[in-house]
Amino acid sequence: MKSARGFTLIEVLIAMMITLGATMVVANAWSGNINRLEKARINDTTATLLQRKMTEVELQYQEKPVAEIPEEDSGDFGAAYPQYKWQLKSKEFEMPNVADSLINREGGADQMLIQIMTQMTELMGKAVKEVSVTIVYTDKRNKAELKNTVATYFIDYTVPLPFGGAGGSSGQ
Questions:
Q1: 144-155: strand order across its sheet
Q2: How many other β-carbons are positioned within 10 Å of the β-carbon of residue 151?
Q3: Which residues of the chain have pLDDT under 50?
Q4: Are 125 and 67 in contact (CB under 8 A)?
């Protein structure tokens, strides 16, 4: 009489533990991939909305004096993107004061050069405006906000030059 050979209880338990471990690794990998896909989708949508809003801003203000650009503005993207909103901020361009560094260099600087640099600094403050657009994504699950910002500069060519001459048309 031949004895029937089978698996012992210990062998079955070890096989089940190995299978359970492999299943947990696969489930964890799936979970990580789903999270990465969700983050990629959010980043892609944010980049698209950021590009769209910046293009709208450029088209709206490209032929206008920089004084017409509001300091702050905000809004949303309607029902199509309920978790996204935008913010616009603008400020005068702040050019560093180069006259001080010219004075401090060896040999100093003459008054005419200092006056020209001072006038150029003032002109840049009036003629150039930095405009930044921020897209804010609000994650409703953990109430976190993700912000992405892009900035551009608008130049108003109609600002009169302090040392004579005239500008052209305004634009970016």
A1: 72-76, 84-92, 128-139, 144-155
A2: 13
A3: 168-171
A4: no
